[in-house]
Structures are given as C-alpha cells and as structure tokens.
C-alpha cells in the first residue's frame, strides 16, 4: 500500500491485506483430512484392527464409500500370501510398482480389496496399512480359506 500526501510517500508496505472471512472459508473448504479421518477399522474373527489409509484418491473414495455404511466382505485366500474379496463397485486406481508386506491393504483392478499377510510385488493401488499386528498374528487371525471381514470408517 502506498499513501501519498502532498507528493511525498508517507507509508509503504509490500503486504497484502486479506479479508479474514476469505481465510476462514479456505480452512473450512480445505481438502486436507481432519486428524484421524484417514483411519479405518477392520473386524476379523471378533478382533478389531486399526488401519491408516493412504493419501490418494482411491483411499479417499474408499472411505467415502464406507461413510455410506459399514461393509462386510468375504475374502478368499490366494496363494498363501493374501485374502481377496470383490467390492462389487469400481474405485479409481493409482497403480504403482509395489512391494507388499504383511498388513498392507491394496485395491486390485479397482474392484477387489486385498489384505496381505505375505509378500508380493506388482503394480497395485495402496489403500492403507494395518497397525499393531505382527505378520504372524495376522496370518493366524486370517486363518486358512475364506474369512469374513467388516470394514468401517472411524
């Protein structure tokens, strides 16, 4: 701002004055998640596991879907490293070369939910990671064959 009185500059500033209400609206309309808004609960065999979701459009769409209601899925064992279930819905993909480990949550082909209890390498979309459970505990919890899981957004 430049204030000129009688041909002389009295005040000069390089600062821009911003309307405080505009700044408030920016915070309200922010796309950044609130604290713990990126958490999901997975219940398997009466045990609930927390998962932290990835920061991508796939995980956001997945959580938005869970906001419509909890989802119960039947997951089938595949090759002794993962449990896979059909979502009956197509989600956006963000496939990248991925090395999975126990606890990883993956979106495969945009319509399959995968819980890893072993290792794999492929182009996948990362959805998140289960917390507070070891590879051994996870493998025991998931057991052999099919397993039913319930997913909910915190």
UniProtKB/TrEMBL annotation:
Pfam families: Cyclophil_like2. This is Cyclophilin-like domain-containing protein. Residues 42-152 form the Cyclophilin-like domain. Signal peptide: none annotated. SUPFAM superfamilies: Cyclophilin-like. InterPro entries: Cyclophilin-like (IPR041183), Cyclophilin-like_dom_sf (IPR029000). It comes from Lacticaseibacillus manihotivorans DSM 13343 = JCM 12514. Gene3D superfamilies: 2.40.100.20. The lineage of its organism: Bacteria, Bacillati, Bacillota, Bacilli, Lactobacillales.
């Amino acid at each position: 701002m430049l204030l000129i009185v009688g041909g002389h500059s009295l005040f000069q500033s390089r600062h821009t004055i911003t309307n405080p209400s505009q700044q408030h609206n920016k915070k309200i309309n922010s796309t950044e998640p609130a604290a713990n808004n990126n958490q999901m609960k997975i219940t398997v065999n009466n045990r609930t596991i927390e998962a932290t979701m990835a920061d991508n459009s796939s995980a956001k769409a997945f959580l938005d879907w869970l906001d419509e209601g909890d989802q119960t899925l039947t997951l089938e064992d595949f090759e002794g490293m993962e449990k896979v279930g059909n979502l009956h819905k197509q989600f956006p993909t963000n496939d990248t070369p991925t090395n999975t480990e126990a606890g990883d949550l993956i979106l495969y082909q945009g319509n399959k939910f995968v819980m890893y209890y072993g290792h794999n390498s492929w182009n996948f979309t990362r959805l998140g990671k289960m917390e507070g459970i070891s590879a051994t505990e996870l493998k025991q919890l998931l057991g052999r064959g099919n397993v039913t899981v319930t997913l909910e957004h915190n």
